[in-house]
Automatic annotation (TrEMBL):
This is DegV family protein. It comes from Corynebacterium callunae DSM 20147. GO terms for molecular function: lipid binding. Gene3D superfamilies: 3.30.1180.10, 3.40.50.10170. Coiled coil: none annotated. Keywords: Lipid-binding. PROSITE patterns: DEGV. NCBIfam families: DegV (TIGR00762). The keyword Iron does not apply. The keyword Cytoplasm does not apply. InterPro entries: DegV, DegV_C, DegV_domain_contain.
Length: 276
């Protein structure tokens, strides 16, 4: 039986294939291109998105399509999605202004898809996605800043100071943009700071945590172990690999924590892939 609401994301949400298959979520891959010795990324076009939305509507999305994409401050994909949605009957495609990226968007998609499987309306799926995003935080530990400096996601002055002081910053996604949440000298101090920030934000309530890594599996395992013993009982964890488009900007060794707080939502309970 087809779900009345179809959930569409782009690959920057970093959802594992097992979860995508289980929840029947449609994923559109963002683009990675080789530019000489460097790799660059580009967002999805309105034509690509319109075609993807049309396919999902044809699959039986009688209520419509819910589209969740990377922050409009970080990619042109959101504006292309709005243009694509305008091709269809009004209300057929609902585009969420996520102001986020990675597994914060992935968690919102999971929550919406869970409701969609139970026959929820497009409005109900939209509301749970927005609420999940509202309760989310994303922090990113950068093992080095070369890639994010090249991408223009931090200022030249910040990059120079970070390099001179040999700092390993923790970034935070806030208002759809990247900002520095903390500066640390070592990975161990960075992980201790991440745990501290997550504990404070949790306020004693269970947390859904997704740890995303780029060429840093052992480090991600270490961070998960620290979070498991520090966060409230009932918290759940998921490990995922970073999407190639995000890896271009984060660089090797990066580990991010996307957490949904005050989590009493069973719709986020699903298969939890582990690192191999």
């Amino acid at each position: 039986m087809a779900m009345p609401v179809r959930v569409v994301i782009d690959s920057s949400a970093c959802l594992p294939k097992e979860v995508v298959a289980e929840l029947d979520i449609a994923v559109i891959n963002l683009h990675v291109m080789q530019d000489g010795e460097d790799r660059t990324t580009s967002g999805l076009s309105s034509l690509e998105l319109a075609a993807a939305y049309a396919r999902q509507l044809e699959r039986g999305g009688d209520e419509g399509v819910l589209a969740l994409h990377i922050s409009k401050e970080l990619s042109s994909t959101w504006s292309a999605a709005v243009t694509a949605a305008a091709v269809f009957e009004e209300g057929a495609v609902r585009v969420v202004d996520t102001s986020s990226l990675g597994m914060a968007v992935g968690a919102a998609a999971m929550a919406a898809a869970r409701l969609a499987k139970d026959g929820a309306s497009l409005e109900e799926c939209y509301d749970i996605a927005v609420d999940t995003l509202r309760r989310s935080e994303t922090w990113i530990y950068l093992h080095r800043i070369d890639e994010i400096r090249k991408s223009g996601r931090i200022s030249a002055a910040t990059a120079v100071v970070s390099t001179a002081l040999a700092t390993r910053p923790i970034m935070r996604v806030h208002g759809g943009r990247m900002e520095i949440a903390a500066k640390t000298r070592t990975q161990s101090k960075a992980f201790a700071k991440l745990v501290e920030m997550a504990q404070i934000r949790a306020e004693g309530q269970p947390v859904f945590v997704a740890i995303t890594q780029n060429e840093a599996r052992e480090a991600a395992k270490q961070l998960e172990a620290l979070l498991q013993v520090s966060l409230p009982e009932g918290s759940s964890f998921m490990f995922v690999d970073v999407d190639p488009t995000l890896a271009v900007h984060a660089g090797p060794g990066a580990v991010s924590v996307s957490a949904v707080f005050a989590n009493e939502a069973p719709e986020l309970s699903t298969a939890k892939p582990v690192l191999k």
